[in-house]
Amino acid sequence: MQRLKIRELLHWSSRSLVNSSSPDIDAWALLKFVLQVDDAWLIANEQTPIDPQHEARIRKLVDFRNSGVPVAYLTNSRQFWSKDLHVNSRVLVPRPETETLVEAVLNTARSFLSPTILELGTGSGAIAIALSTEIPHAEITATDLSRDALAIAKINLGRHNCANVKLMEADWFSGLEGRKFHLICSNPPYIARNDPHLEAPELQHEPESALVSGEDGLDAIRQIVSESSGYLHPGGWLVLEHAYDQAMQVQSIMNNARFVDVHSEKDLMDHDRVSLGRRPE
Length: 281
What we know:
It contains ten helices and nine strands. The protein is of the alpha/beta class.
C-alpha cells in the first residue's frame, strides 16, 4: 500500500477539521507535534512519505480536535509572549488578548525602580514568565489556588529560567497578609455562569474555575478590587483583564473602591480588554 506524503496528510487533516475555525493552522501544529519537527523541516519535506504509525496518530488527534479538545492540550504546548509553554487541561489555555495585560503592567512598571509584582491566579505561569523576561530586576509573586496549576507553572518557570518569580498556593490574597506590592495583576475568571459561550466545545475542556465567576461574571473582580488596596503601596497599580464588554462595569467597581486614574486598554481586536487603576498616594 502506497504511503501518504506529508503534503497529502496535511491536506486531509485540514479538510477533516470541520469544527475548527483555523483548520490549516491546527493541521500544521498537529503534524509538527507528531513528527517532532519545526516549520522549516515540514516545508522542505512535504513530499516525504509518512510513517503509518505517525499517520494513525495524526488521524486520532484530528478526531480529538473535532470533539473540541484544544490543540494546546493535544500538543501540550502554547506560545505566549514568544515563549513556548507547557499546558494541559489543568490550566486555562493562554490567549493572545492576555498579552494586552502584560503590556499594561510593563507600562506601569516603568514608574518603579525595583517593582514588586503580585499576579493572582497564575495558571500556566504565562503572565509571570512574560513579566520576568521583560523586567528581570522585578520581584514577582505568582499565586494560584490549584496545586495542579502551580505544578504546570513550576515546569514553565524552570524552562524559562525565571529565578525572580516565586510561586505560592493562595486563594487570591490569603497568606499575603502584611505584604505590599507596587503592582497587582490578574486574568481572573470573568464569564457569567449562564453565558451561552460556555457551550463552545473548546471551553468545555478547560477548567471551569478559571472561566466562570458568578451570575454576571464579575464576582472575582469585585473581590480582587475590594481587597487589593490593602496589598498595594500608595501609588501602586491594579491591572485586570476582563471580557470585551465589561470595561464600564469594571471601571465603576474600581472607582467605587476609590482607585484613581482608572481607564481601560484595548486589545488587538480594538476591544477594551484590560482596566487599571491606581491606589491614591
